[in-house]
Amino acid sequence: MDYPELKTSLTERIPQVEGLRCVLCGVLYSLDEAKYVCPSCGPVGTLDVVLNPNVLWPTRVDPMRRALVWEEERFMPIARDLPKPNETIALRVGDTPYYHWSETKNPFLRSHPFAVKDDSKNPTASFKDRASAMVVHHALTIGASVVATASTGNAAAALAGISAAMPQIQAVIFVPATAPQAKIAQLLVYGAKVILVDGTYDEAFDICWEACEEFGWYNRSTGINPFTSEGKKTIAWEISFSGYEMPDVVCVPVGDGSIIGSTYKGFADLKKLGWIDQIPRLIGVQASGSSALVHAWENNLDPREMQPRPAQTIADSISASLPRDRAKALRAVRETNGAIIRVTDSEILDAIPALAQATGVFAEPAGASAFAGWLVGLEKGYIHEKERVLILNTGSGLKDINSAMKSVHGVGVLRPVKPEMDEIRKAVAKFEW
Amino acid sequence: MDYPELKTSLTERIPQVEGLRCVLCGVLYSLDEAKYVCPSCGPVGTLDVVLNPNVLWPTRVDPMRRALVWEEERFMPIARDLPKPNETIALRVGDTPYYHWSETKNPFLRSHPFAVKDDSKNPTASFKDRASAMVVHHALTIGASVVATASTGNAAAALAGISAAMPQIQAVIFVPATAPQAKIAQLLVYGAKVILVDGTYDEAFDICWEACEEFGWYNRSTGINPFTSEGKKTIAWEISFSGYEMPDVVCVPVGDGSIIGSTYKGFADLKKLGWIDQIPRLIGVQASGSSALVHAWENNLDPREMQPRPAQTIADSISASLPRDRAKALRAVRETNGAIIRVTDSEILDAIPALAQATGVFAEPAGASAFAGWLVGLEKGYIHEKERVLILNTGSGLKDINSAMKSVHGVGVLRPVKPEMDEIRKAVAKFEW
Asked: ipTM of the predicted structure?
């Protein structure tokens, strides 16, 4: 593909975007004035990409053709002088399965129908591919050939994997040296340049930002790049145009708060465009060991008042001491009459086999926490029995086999039997069908 | 769902199937006469489900609507008195991404366009879900509520996962006690009943079959159940109706030979129905440490003459000393003017990052072997430069992280750096972009 010389401003090239508005102070910057966070509020002042629904486009995509969200210029901040993301990103991002369950082996669940959106079927097996796809496409738009991020988890794999598929883009990942070797290996398999940082995640985050400024790299790090939200918001389109009725409630795992914040942004944009009438209640689910946003929501804090809190949970994808997208996350639940609730690590672990045995969907701990959160929300009255619930699974259980093994209390519970029918009969007699 | 009483014969309920024909002696049995293998030839005499293209159906599915292969009664052996597999199997099986690559970071590959069918995006992250879906649906058809298999690998996970999604079906898996704990844990997460067999895989296979006979369970084990092929053959439909031109060559990983055998069966059925004109050449790829079918093909052996050979390879999904579907595998390459070629474990390991870095597709060793096989096939003249090649990735790299780590020579190659720009600059200066 040949890309045009970048002669005109982003404002002209992406005319359907009015600008970037700070979620805290409300100031609107043009696409050419701001890039990551609000120059006045700092990192807590994350930016919204503001659509201008009055800009007319020559072609229109039928919103019912769900796979085509990446071509929808009225909904997505894509430049008119470039090929669409469906062309630049060769991989199938999004268009993940939407399952509706009314019959399962679990008697409780049979009387509580629910739906699952299985985002573990994205190219690198997590929801984060949506963000990386949009950011990498925007890198082409702004003429950046290197995209960097600080992460050890799904976001890093997503940037590495999506960039692998793009000949024009190179990924650089800043990883704390203490990260699990298996996760780092995956980044190397995808060909990302990996910088092992002898320090904490926050130090890796800061030095990544500094390196981006010095080398002209585009920074995809969670919670500061407004285009990550624009990729993630595609989930709202897929939920709205799934062919099923709109759910009343969507349960979303919450760490930094980016996913729930972006899900809200997507629904809000769809409503602004007049394509949907109402927005589901968004229920954020945090691990009790990493529940800064539960605390803020219960105490009605302003995001600016929040302080770091200790974070430790088995669900590493949603571990965050001071959630970087706290402003967008709190807005999402406050604007939709939602809630942010906590579930224990033990409830999360139990949810892995419970969800898998009811649906065949094998989730990583963060994804299972959304399912656990639904059950806790029902029990505590945050979710009503009659509400139609959608559970968002954000990542594959294959990403964290150790937790899966813990969730079934190890394989040691099984005793080997000799390959003789007498022994087999005894083993079968003990099955609880 | 309510299922009908099973009063009539399978022959009447699945009228589009003429019967089951032995691939060796050619005898045709009715669906009510035979179940697993040819009563006269024994286990090497695997059976084909023979379609009768003259049976008319009231409704017809447009073959271009690829996701609907599971509803196509003229192509699939589904009973007319049951809901279609798309209803009984709630999960999205098949409909996996088909990627066509002409631009990658790899200069060699830029001048050698190729396509990848990424079957790691199936529900349990492998191609085997196609087989399990059909078998489990057929279990409903024959009124079996337990489906069993002997396996440690993708087939076991596929049966466990697909059965989890079906309230009427329980999976029982016979696993050698020496299998990796992580793989067993996944089966337990899905709620399968696991019998740890203190013996070899062959002993587990035999005792599974015996248990199925005694308890009336339906046996899904590889190489004996003719309906596994019918599920797997859906890949041929998706390749034929992908929207891309038909490939000239399809490269398929080969262990027991079931996948390549079933891919051929799918193309042959499509040709019989008059829906395609020609069948791609099928190139089977075996690991050099497990290459019984390469030996048989090179020496033009009859499948009945083949003897067990030692099998040891890093690609555990394609390790087989006496491939159980040897008759169907040899037929596939002989009928299509294909080949079976060997690749070394080292070539397989190298292929994991090579494929991932060119496409973003992270394959397990067996899947990567198909890519390695294409490169070896080009070099050795089994595949011509001008032939349009499709690589079938059969499983996710997340299923075998240890091999992924080996493929990038460990993470130990990276030296941690302090979070200071001086250090970062030095690290960046060493990058080979």
From this structure: 0.94
